[in-house]
Amino acid sequence: METAFLDLLKNQIVYENTIIPFVKNYAEIDRSPCFTINQADERFIRRRYVQIDGAEYLRKRYNATIWINIWCNTEKERHTLTKQIDHRILQAETNHYTTCKYYEDDSCKLLESRCEALTHNTGRTNKSQCPRINDYQSFFQKHHIIKNTFRIDSVTDLDELDPTGQILRTIFKLEMDYYHYHKIGGKPFDEFELETKI
After folding, report:
1. Beta strand 160-162 with 14-15: parallel, antiparallel or unpaired?
2. Which of 150, 161, 182, 195 lies at a CB distance of 3.0 to 4.6 Å from 58, suitable for a disulfide?
């Protein structure tokens, strides 16, 4: 799940015209402002066998807690970065065209042309959504997150004292359920045939 939220936030958080870097785990060198993403908890809920497009899968459902940690030096940085991360999560929840699986640098990889949300004038494009509702694949669909279970559980300031000074830390605690699929393979059993000799 960490990679899902890295995918959502990567190159999207900016402070004073500089893209804020993602730092894997906690760095020994102070690189603030930056952000880290950690999976704080994951619990197995249940499993089912499902059939998708003629193939059988083992589908496992998990509940996960993700922490997005914002590390910064000033209150201005904290306020700016917190607002941007909150805004990006809201964009994912409201199906913003930039959160589509096929969106990349103003282009649609599915259509291999400029994103229609930028070129058409419809009710959906006025809400910054893809006009091709049947082709749009949301952030939640792409990462198998069950959308109605997703929530920001809390936003907490948890500052730390460092020998060189104070490091400001804000934690977004996200809760969600998601599916993990494992393809079983073979031909699914969907009808019974009995051979008899007459």
Report:
1. unpaired
2. 182
Type of residue numbered 54: G
pLDDT digits (tens, 9 = 90+) for 51-108: 888 888 999 999 999 999 999 989 999 999 999 999 999 999 999 999 999 999 999 9
**34 Cβ partners below 8 Å, 6+ apart?**
20, 21, 22, 23, 27, 71
Task: Return the SS3 of 90.
Answer: helix
Domain boundaries, the chain: 2-92+144-183, 96-137
Contact between 102 and 110 under an 8 Å Cβ cutoff? The reply is: yes
Q: At what angle do helices 2-9 and 75-93 cross, to 10 degrees?
A: 100
pLDDT at 181 over 80: yes
Instruction: Kindly report the backbone phi and psi dihedral angles of residue 18, in degrees, each rounded to the nearest multiple of 5, phi listed first.
Output: -120, 130
CATH number for the segment(s) 2-92+144-183: 3.30.2000
How many CB atoms are closer than 10 A to CB 24? 9
Residue type, 157: D
- Smallest CA-to-CA distance from 99 within 67, 140, 132, 69 is with 140
Q: CA torsion 85→27→33→64, rounded to 10°?
A: 10
CA distance 177 to 60: 10
Torsion (CA) 19, 118, 130, 144 in degrees, nearest 10:
-20
Residue type at 20 in one-letter notation: I
